[in-house]
Fold this sequence. Notes:
Layout: H1 13-18, H2 28-35, H3 45-57, E1 73-79, E2 86-89, E3 97-118, E4 123-137, E5 150-151, E6 156-163, E7 167-176
Antiparallel strand pairs: 1-7, 2-6, 3-4, 3-5, 3-6, 3-7
Amino acid sequence: MPLPDAGDPTDSLLYQQLRSKKLEDLTADQLDQWRDQLFVEGANEDDIRRMILLYLAAGQFSIPSGPMPRTAEMVQITQTSDVGAYTIFKPGVGECWQWMGGDLLTSGGTGKVNFSLFDGTTYAYIGSASVSGQEPLTNDNLDGIIGQLFLTSDVWLVADATTFPTSTRVTAAFIRVS
């Protein structure tokens, strides 16, 4: 089925150059070479749409393909009493966010904070950090998950200060990836 409002596919420069290739054999380099020949102009719109379809069908890229620009968020929560687990960050429906890092700050003694993933029913412990003063949250005290942890509205990040000084502040940075 041709693209809506598109010209005849047999007239497509893309299809003329790649017609002897099987979809499974297309490489990102081959597609990139073809893409580099295109100018961004109305006359090339149909070939640009075809190019995107081939990139996706050949499994050579996904949308989006990384962090979304201008979506970074910093969250800072201070706990001053033992309230149990509290939400650090919960994305909106249909969003996926990556945890980039953070730190802990305590006053009045040493604090320990447990971090877990939560789906509304079940907690999955992912690590803890103890701090007297201010310390970064690192992969050493959180089992290598920072930068590898993705959160959605179905599974989000919670914390619980279990050893409680006067106050414990958690600061965390996130970036949206889809």
